[in-house]
Amino acid sequence: MPRLLLERQSRVTVFLKLIARLPLPILHGLGILLGWVVYLAPGRHSGRMRDNIFSSGLCKDARSCRRLLRQSIGESGKAIMEVIVFWLRPYQKAMKLVKGTTGWEHIEAALADGRGLILFGPHLGGFEIASQYYAQHHPFTAMYKPHRNPGLDKLMLAGRQRGLCKLVPADKSGVRALLAALKRGEGIGMLPDQVASRGDGVWAPFFGRQAFTPTLVASLQRKTGAAGFFGAAERLSWGRGYHIHILPMHTALPEDKTAAATLINQYSEEMIRRFPAQYLWIYNRYKRPGGAPPPPDAAS
C-alpha cells in the first residue's frame, strides 16, 4: 500500500510539473475558472468571502462591493494556480516573472547598515514569489508548519525552500532560529495576517473587525533592533508577471502587545488597499482559535 501511494504521488508531481510549464496567462485563465468553481461550490467559502469584503469598508456602495467580489473570486483562483509555478517551475525561470520593484532600495540600505530585517508578507497578490525573490538575493528564514499529507508536505517544503531560503519549524526551536538569523543581520519572514495561535496573539482591529493577530515579531524586533518592512507582489494583468512593492515601517513595534498588533494590522491594510482585489478574502481571518479569549466586541 505505501508503495502504491508513493507511485501515485510521483505521478501527481510529474503532472503538476508539466502544468507549471504552461504560460502564466493560461494558468491565470484556468485560475479564474477555478476561483468561480470554489466560490459556487457548497460550503462556507462564498459566504465568508462576501462577508469579509462587504464589511471591509473598502467599497463606497453595494455595487462597488459586488464588483470587488467578482474580481476577487478570479484573483483567488489565480493565487491557487500560480503556486504550481512558484514551487515547480525552475527557480531562475520563476524569478524572471518579477518584472520590477518599488521600494527595494530601502531593504538594501537596511542590510548594508548591518541590521536584521523582518519582511511581513500578507496573503496579497503573489505572496509566495515575494519571499522567493528576496531569497534570490539574501539569506531568508521563515517558519514552516508541516502539512498533514506527507506527499504535499514534501512538495511544499521543496517548493518553498529555494534560493537562500531556510524553513524552520513553528515551535520554540524555530523562534530561536529566527532570533539567531536577525542577530546575524539576515532577513526573516512573517505572515502578519495569519490567525495567531493561543499563546502568540491578541485581538486587534483589521478592516473594522477584531482579528486574532500574532505578536511574537514585536519581541524579536525589540531584542535585535531589526528593521521592519511590508512586502507584496502585485499580480500584473494578462499574466504579464509580478511587481514587488516594499513598504518600510517608520517606527518600531510597541512593547504593548495590543498596540503592536494594531500597528501590524494598519500596515497590512495599507498594503491591501493598493490592490484590494488580490487579497485572499476567502481566508478565515476572523476566526477564534481554540483556547483564545473572546474578542472585545463579543465580550462586551
Summarize the structure.
With 300 residues, this protein is α/β, with parallel strands linked by helices. It has twelve helices and nine strands.
Structural features, described:
With 300 residues, this protein is α/β, with parallel strands linked by helices. It starts with a helix and ends with a helix. It is built from twelve helices and nine strands. It has a single domain (2-288), classed as Glycerol-3-phosphate (1)-acyltransferase (3-Layer(aba) Sandwich), CATH 3.40.1130. The relative contact order is 0.16. The chain has a seven-stranded mixed β-sheet with strand order 1-9-8-2-5-3-4, sandwiched between helices.
Topology:
Blueprint: H1 2-20, H2 24-40, H3 45-54, H4 62-88, H5 91-95, E1 98-102, H6 104-112, E2 117-120, H7 127-137, E3 140-144, H8 150-160, E4 165-169, H9 172-183, E5 187-190, E6 202-206, E7 209-213, H10 216-224, E8 227-235, E9 242-248, H11 257-272, H12 296-299
Parallel strand pairs: 1-9, 2-5, 2-8, 3-4, 3-5
Antiparallel strand pairs: 6-7, 8-9
Strand fraction equals 15-25%
What gyration radius follows from the Cα positions, in whole Å? 19 Å
In CATH, the architecture is 3-Layer(aba) Sandwich
Count of helical segments? 12
Structural class: alpha/beta
Oligomer: single chain
Specify the biggest β-sheet.
7 strands, mixed
* Extended strand count: 9
Task: Give the mean pLDDT.
Answer: 91
Taken in chain order, the helices and strands follow as HHHHHEHEHEHEHEEEHEEHH
Low-confidence stretches: none
What CATH calls the topology is: Glycerol-3-phosphate (1)-acyltransferase
